[in-house]
Amino acid sequence: MKLCRFNDNRLGVVDGREVIDVTEALDVIPRSGYPLPAFDPLIANLEAVTQRIGALRGQAERLVLEDVRLLSPVANPGKVVAAPVNYRKHLEEVLANADLHHDVKINHIEKAGLFLKAPSSLVGAGQGIQLRKLDRRNDHEVELAVVIGRTADRVSRAQALQHVAGYCIGLDITIRGPEERSFRKSPDTYTVLGPWLTTADDVPNPGSLDLQISVNVETRQKSNTADLILGVAELIEFASSFYTLQPGDVILTGTPEGVSPIRPGDVILAEISDLGSMTVHVSAKAEALDQKVA
After folding, report:
1. What confidence tens digit (pLDDT) does each residue in 141-174 have?
2. Alpha-carbon distance 176 to 21, whole Å?
3. Sequence spans of domains, the chain
4. Of these four, 147, 158, 189, 284, which has the most CB atoms within 10 Å of its CB?
């Protein structure tokens, strides 16, 4: 099943070039008071929601996919966990290019560990990227994104995929520089998820997916998840050995070689087999004006 969030936080099932509006299925999610839960309520209750969708979809309104504004399929991830230099050729690329490593020591992922991106950086394909720090290089990075479906605490790689709700395309946008990764990768709109969530039952082998990205119709990155240094199961095992993963947490699995700059006005097309494709427009973040109180 392909589940999307669209327009004013509505829930849809993608069926070909149509979106079936099944927002009413959200009524099965238990209401929460303060303090809010440390997980995404939709993902935590995905089984109940999909059962309700089955009863609704035959009579629900159908919309043209191109006419809706796609949001991130996950609204409230507690954590966005990212894997650095997790493709062998990208590791070689970073080590060879001073514009990428900035004299910062680059370690193998098992030495470097994982890093966190701010959930506030998250947007959907229809919201676009607003670049900051235009005096510096801003790069695209296409990645397989894994959405955790149930609590995972120190799980083994053999059991890891049982904790996955689904997959989507991820864009990890990066400001190049010497600062820590989390700092340079967490501005607003610098994490794009979409175009929808493809549930795990429709992705039998996440370790064999073609992925690519083009900018203004020029192919920049093209690879397969078979080339990951740590695959999906290994990343879940690694991440959950340090912290508990909750429903809705997102793991960005790393990007292949071919990272390159993007600029305002660019149009990105990102594709992963079995998951679809998404078009994302790039603009510049408007500079805020100082507000002075008289």
Report:
1. 999 999 999 999 999 999 999 999 999 999 999 9
2. 40
3. 2-67, 80-284
4. 147
